[in-house]
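Reading a protein record of the kind used here takes only a little practice. To see the layout at work, look at the sequence and tokens printed below.
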Amino acid sequence: MNEDVIQEGQETKELFMIAQSIYRGDSDKEPKRYGTRLLSRHRIASKRWRERFHYRVKRDTRKASEVLMNGGFVSVDYMLGHEFRTEIRKITGKLPTKVFEYKSKTESLSDSGMGEHIFHIFGMDYDKFDLSPLIAELNAQLHPEDEISQDFIIEFLSDKSKHYKLYKICKNCHNVYGRTTKACPKCKATKARKISEPTEQLKNTLYAIRDAFLSHVWATDMSHGFIAGRSPKTNAGMHLGCKVLVKIDIKEFFDHITVDMVEEGYLNTLPKKMLPYARLLAELSTFDLHKAWNKKKGCPHVTPQGSPISPILSNVILRLFDMRMAGFARKVGFCCTRYADDIVLSAVDNRKINKTIPFIKQLLRETGFQANEKKVVVKRSGQRMTVTGIVVNDTLNVPRKERRNFRAKLHKILSNEELLKSVTDKEIEQMMGYANWIKHVNPTTGEKFVSQIKTIIEKRG
């Protein structure tokens, strides 16, 4: 390794350690109120504090950028990672992909556990980088016939499009059709969910990443989506009997979870020996949707809908948002939950809850998301209030209109022999699935529907 580069790297390390100590409140030159405790409290929004902090970031990253452009490295504390990375990228056009906490100012490069790998990680030259520790961790989660190799990872990074199957699902009739078709062939609706489904080998790899590095991540009490033991029913149950209800939807949720956000999530969850692979894991977990779906806006590399790892990554990335929202809700006396991209806030009395909406939107903007203005809903007592498709006014139940339509459909099938014989196996599976969903929410009503479908199956033969 070049001695000049090492020296420049050591200077950069000391520079960021000073900035880190100032931010943590360990320095005598700055007041204690600039400590990291501020990050999890409402004072983070203080305009004066943010202006001073951004000024220090811009000032200190000028020198760091010079080191990067000369082939050096940048090492910063993970709490400062996002701000420093953003400023460095503005100056150099490059994104530093390594974040480390040093034990002391005198710690050498070899003692930090980085060795010479940092240059290959920064340059994205994974073919020159030893991936054997990461591959060993992933293969420990896979069957012998599904094990991956370094060649597969390099081939995937060179062209991700070969490892994804693209199609659309109609939001109206749930029909599946090709990605190039503008309207649904069945119902002619144009609104559809764009799915990027990984191939079998990539899917197994993503499952291995989830089991090896993300399965142990604790979930906040506010989050109810994609977590074992929690469901739309538990999410709705938190708001049962409320008098005021506010629902806010996050706009293009998965399309706003960028590769940089995913990397930050991995850096906060990976064990120390796996930190050098954070950027690589982020690249494995994201997909270039611009190229795939011909999008013109947004970040190209985001978490794709259809990937088995996207849901749990969304919970990891929104943990800080969940904690800040939960603290705010406790302070004002509201109940707050989140199921994927649906945020629900409720109160048991008719207090003015509209003032909380701007605060939630601001928190979303600070996290990197946007609220969907068209889907902001405020409901009060006397109106039907639904949370994740479940009515929460008095008791948990499926909306009456949906139950009546489903009951009429079953009655029509049972009373018409020709229609009974024309029912396909797929339609029966769909009806049984919906009946079990109603049974999950309201066992008494759902059991009647299940028995009717069993009668249809017996008469159909």
